[in-house]
Amino acid sequence: MRFARIAAALILLGAVLTPAKYTLRYLWGVSGREGIFESLLAGLTYLFILMSSYAVLAAVLWLARRLLVFADAWVGLGFADMDVGVHGRWPYRWFLLLGIMLVVGAALGSHGEWLNGLVEALAASTAVLLALVGQPPLPNPIDEYDPLPFPSPVPIPEPTPMPQPPSPLDLIPLTMSWFFRKEPGVLGSPATGYEIRVQASKSRYEMLLSRDHSVRAVGDYGRFVRDGLTPEIDETAHQLRQITERDGLHTISEINNVLALAQRFRYALDHEDKGVPEYPKYPLETMVEDRGDCEDHAIVAAACLVRLGYEVRLVSLEYGSGPGHMALAVAGADDLPDAFALRDPLSGQKFYYCEATTDAGSRDPHAVAFRMGEVPERDRRAKMELILLS
After folding, report:
1. What is each CA distance from 232 to 171, 201, 387, in whole angstroms?
2. Tens of pLDDT along 172-216?
3. Distance separating alpha carbons of residues 291 and 279, to the nearest angstrom
4. What is the rounded CA–CA span in Å between residue 312 and residue 250?
């Protein structure tokens, strides 16, 4: 419905600023009125016409969307992203300026019918503003649920000491910065910027590059987390826990902050990045190269969460045709509300879905990041499988 509101609002705005406006006004006898009362009445009449047209357009576009969804063409045609609402502060600023311009234009260009133009301009700008911004998203209920069924507090992991201090020639300085919004459901809520600095080992990175990266079964992806728990991941987890303690994050927020960290890496397909169809990376490789595809984002997040003391699984998604996808899942209580979970067939425990893949999305303070328990629309009908890390 958000798409219908956006499209209908833009069409409405176009109608106000085009000759269609004058056609409607002529047909309804609006032009030629004299006097404040008559002009105001004409403006209100025209406002009713605009809102009625708006309702009809919204209904037509909603019906068109439902037909495309029914025909399984909505996602296939790339329209799924249009269901995401436009939120944040910029629409207010942009449409405040637009509203002022419309009012001034109507007052100067209405040939004496300034009150009519004023009513129309305010109605149009307000309708478009409300349509684009819409209702702010409700907070994810699990954001308020704390703690997860783990000891409280989860012990702070100590970085694994390196065998010997690396030489300056062996160092790769890494700086990973991202934004995290503690209150995603609050319109215009501020995003906090975080930064982690890690001194990575060049020799360790090259050693990981030289390893076999092939996978023969879906379960093979788990080894890239298990064997990728390097001192760099330990240090990253340690600094993440320091952020948690300093900013008073609870366990759910800490998990979401780790997802935001993973979502800061740029997206790159394996055949473009490595020249092969499939190339899972160890976490250090993704951190050094600052890019990776879906399994690389998920592996980084999973490794950090394991070091932070959480029980984690990778999640393989198959769509029936085309390439698959990979995410992760974190164990949690059975009663986390309104959150998507998979039940482990071996232990019976619930693991809550976590999407870690964007194209450096969390580098933008205005972007909406995926959070624990949220599943992108395109993935809801996929076949999912939990992957053990050990």
Report:
1. 11, 8, 24
2. 999 999 999 887 655 456 889 999 999 999 999 999 999 999 999
3. 12
4. 18
* Cα gap 347→390, rounded to integer Å: 14
Predicted confidence (pLDDT) per residue in 20-40, tens digit: 565 555 555 555 555 667 666
Distance of CA 158 to CAs 161, 237, 241, 324, Å? 9, 9, 10, 36
Q: Angle at the Cα of 287 (from 170 to 298), degrees rounded to 5?
A: 145
User: Encoding tokens for residue 320?
Assistant: 């029936």
What residues have CB less than 8 Å from 108, skipping those under 6 apart?
none
Q: Is the CB of residue 4 less than 8 Å from the CB of residue 62?
A: yes
**Cα gap 310→308, rounded to integer Å:** 6
Contacts of 247 (CB under 8 A, 6+ apart): 182, 192
